[in-house]
Backbone:
């Protein structure tokens, strides 16, 4: 009976680690896609140090889970106590780091409000100054998502324009409609847009557009994170049980 239980734990351990292996492969692939994606998202990530760091953290976490899943599978099948102990310690560290990150994200979620982004935009945005990371990032976001400001073009009314005149509105070029939503895309009518004709402008705020675009993926990412934490917890339990059961 004890041998049957040990054999059952061994194969369950292998199964859980196989899922961790797959999860690591998915994170690794997602991290690589974010960094090399040619559709415009790469430009946003590269312009924002926080997103740039996050992409590489995702890449590193994916590679680590990929490796640990592989080691866990090998340790379970070969019944190697050294590999099992190595796996348990590292998966415990990863589990605690992910749990801490989730708690911090929950605590600081209040910083991701519409009012926070509006305040930051009005304070730091410098229109077409592509040497400024903040402005370049916002321009890329507005062009990619065909939106304007946080709430709409009215966000830019209080922001100084370098060549502002009485006949020129406050709307930046990034808010003008394009035939293709990328920096290389041709303007539908740039002069009419900058003169204030609304039908040539993107009028919807980026906060609403991005929230609607990523709402489904946020819930999916949350469910995936909970699933990964649960799998890691069970994998640690089976690893320790198998470690103690091996003679």
Residues:
């Amino acid at each position: 009976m004890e041998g049957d239980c040990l054999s059952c734990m061994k194969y369950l351990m292998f199964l859980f680690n196989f899922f961790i292996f797959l999860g690591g492969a998915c994170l690794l692939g997602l991290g690589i896609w974010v960094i090399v994606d040619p559709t415009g998202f790469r430009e946003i990530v590269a312009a924002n140090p926080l997103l740039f760091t996050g992409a590489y953290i995702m890449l590193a976490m994916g590679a680590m889970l990929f490796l640990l899943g592989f080691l866990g599978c090998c340790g379970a099948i070969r019944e190697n106590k050294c590999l099992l102990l190595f796996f348990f310690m590292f998966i415990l560290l990863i589990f605690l780091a992910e749990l801490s990150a989730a708690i911090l994200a929950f605590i600081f979620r209040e910083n991701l409000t519409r009012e926070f982004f509006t305040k930051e935009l009005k304070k730091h945005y410098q229109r077409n100054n592509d040497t400024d990371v903040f402005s370049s990032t916002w321009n890329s976001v507005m062009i990619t998502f065909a939106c304007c400001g946080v709430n709409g073009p009215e966000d830019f009314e209080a922001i100084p324009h370098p060549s502002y005149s009485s006949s020129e509105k406050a709307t930046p070029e990034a808010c003008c409609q394009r035939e293709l939503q990328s920096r290389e895309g041709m303007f539908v009518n740039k002069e009419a847009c900058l003169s204030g004709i609304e039908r040539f402008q993107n009028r919807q705020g980026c906060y609403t557009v991005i929230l609607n675009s990523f709402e489904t993926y946020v819930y999916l990412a949350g469910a995936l994170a909970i699933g990964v934490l649960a799998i890691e917890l069970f994998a640690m339990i089976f690893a320790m049980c198998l470690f103690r059961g091996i003679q």
Remarks:
- DSSP finds eight helices and no strands in the chain.
